[in-house]
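[INFO] parsing input record for WD repeat-containing protein 54-like
[DEBUG] input buffer:
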Amino acid sequence: MYERENTLLLSSTASALCNNLSVNRTSAKSKGGVATKLAVVHQNNINIIPVAESDKTRPQYITCHNNSALCEVMQVLWCDLGFEVVLVVASTLGLDIYDRDGVDLLFSHPCMDGPEDEYSFVKGIATLNNEVLCAGNSSGVLRVFGVLDEETCLSFMDRKEGHMDAITDIASSRNYSSSAVRPGWTAVICLWEINLLCSSQINDQMLVGGRFLNTNGTGFCVSAYDTNLVHCFKT
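[DEBUG] output buffer:
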């Protein structure tokens, strides 16, 4: 069974976005795939905090904008692209890829297909075999980027049309799929591995994100809308 372990404090509250929580883990081969940092979106800002209380790394606050134009961040995700782990940011400005620490901007692409004056966004991020990065947008178009070498980071490969509505999430396996998720005010957490392992409830909070803290599944955390709390659980 999982039990509440501790609560981490963000520098700001979490926006009401599905999948609004990302985890940066160590290498599974060398250090067991343990989470070191969490990222949560608040409007056009990305709040990054350390997981371990002993980690004295200062919280980071990344503001996304284009010159003077602000934007809405829709999703953030740390992705392993083989040669490097990067922080991928999907927003109303397009797709931005930073280094692992969120300091240097490595790659940027608008990923837009609608009229310039139309509200549009990028959402839905997934990788395949640590070599291909896929990103969806509000026009229902999927873009595919590939890793060429360590110097160029990524390169645009293909553009796929197959959805009539906005892509809101992408999961990678042999095929790609997208789905819309509507969160509710009943904050019930359920974990599966074929059978139900645990069910826990957090009262009066609308959960917007959940991630495992390690690769063996012994710990996980959840974020909630309009709070600066990240609740952590462990076996």
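[INFO] The domain at 74-234 is CATH 2.130.10.10 (Methylamine Dehydrogenase; Chain H).
[INFO] shutting down worker
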